[in-house]
């Protein structure tokens, strides 16, 4: 029989796990990891066919996508992918998304193959956090590539952003990584809350929906 067990600590852990996964996913998909120095397109076509100077803008470069403004386009900045390899950050995010999906079902299922679902998820979150830290540490090592120097100037080098500044996506990924480790530690508290004596008493009384503070 399925017992739906809801406690403040288990619900908080579930919500934090979902926030961490979505935060990392949004950061990963964003192009705002590196913000290039201000520049002006060479020319844009005016309404009468003549060319006029374009407005200054700052191109952005992400993990696998970039946003630039092309002189012959009138619709604004063009964004699209440029890379096909995602590395450690993608691996960590996939694990977080899996945990976020599983966490929704922790109210009904408390074990997986006789192992606590909270402990299993906490372990996966710890592993995901390690992958994310590795990815964030290796990410600046690629700043010396031709692609980054095109956006950040010739002074760009490994672990030196040159004329670029860090975008909001990088800081979001860092915050999501910290939150991932918080969730990994907090999963133990969620396990304690759902296996307490009070919960067992409610189960023995035949209740299917158990809500505790």
What does this entry look like structurally?
By secondary structure, the protein is an alpha+beta fold. Helices cover 48% and strands 14% of the residues. The strands form four sheets. It has a five-stranded antiparallel sheet with strand order 7-6-5-2-10. The radius of gyration is 23 Å and the shape is elongated. Mean pLDDT is 78; it is low at 43-52. It comes from Neogobius melanostomus (round goby).
Q: In summary, what is this structure?
A:
The chain is an alpha+beta fold and 213 residues long. Helices cover 48% and strands 14% of the residues. Helix 1 packs antiparallel against helix 2 and helix 3 runs antiparallel to helix 5.
Oligomer: single chain
Radius of gyration: 23 Å
Percentage of residues assigned to helices: 40-55%
Main sheet: which strands, in order across?
7-6-5-2-10
Measured by DSSP, the beta-strand proportion falls in 5-15%
Shape: elongated
Overall mean pLDDT stands at 78
If helices are DSSP runs of H or I spanning 4 or more residues, what is the number of helices? 6
Which stretches are poorly predicted, pLDDT < 50 over at least 5 residues? 43-52
Q: What class would the helix/strand composition place it in?
A: alpha+beta
Order of helices and strands: EHEEEEEEHEEHHEHHE
Outline the biggest β-sheet.
Answer: 5 strands, antiparallel
InterPro entries: LHFPL (IPR019372)
Subcellular location: Membrane
Protein name: LHFPL tetraspan subfamily member 2a
Organism: Neogobius melanostomus (round goby)
């Amino acid at each position: 029989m399925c017992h739906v067990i809801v406690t403040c600590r288990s619900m908080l852990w579930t919500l934090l796990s979902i926030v961490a996964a979505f935060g990392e996913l949004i950061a990963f998909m964003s192009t705002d990891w590196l913000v290039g120095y201000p520049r002006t397109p060479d020319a844009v076509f005016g309404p009468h066919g003549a060319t006029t100077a374009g407005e200054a803008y700052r191109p952005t470069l992400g993990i696998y996508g970039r946003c630039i403004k092309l002189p012959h386009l009138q619709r604004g900045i063009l964004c699209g992918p440029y890379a096909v390899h995602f590395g450690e950050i993608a691996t960590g995010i996939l694990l977080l998304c899996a945990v976020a999906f599983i966490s929704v079902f922790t109210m009904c299922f408390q074990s997986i193959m006789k192992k606590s679902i909270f402990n299993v998820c906490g372990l996966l979150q710890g592993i995901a956090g390690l992958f994310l830290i590795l990815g964030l540490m290796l990410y600046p090592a690629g700043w010396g590539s031709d692609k980054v120097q095109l956006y950040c100037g010739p002074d760009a080098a490994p672990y030196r952003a040159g004329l670029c500044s860090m975008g909001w996506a990088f800081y979001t990924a860092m915050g999501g990584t910290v939150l991932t480790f918080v969730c990994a530690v907090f999963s133990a508290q969620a396990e304690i809350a759902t296996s307490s004596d009070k919960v067992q008493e409610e189960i023995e009384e035949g209740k299917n929906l158990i809500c505790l503070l």
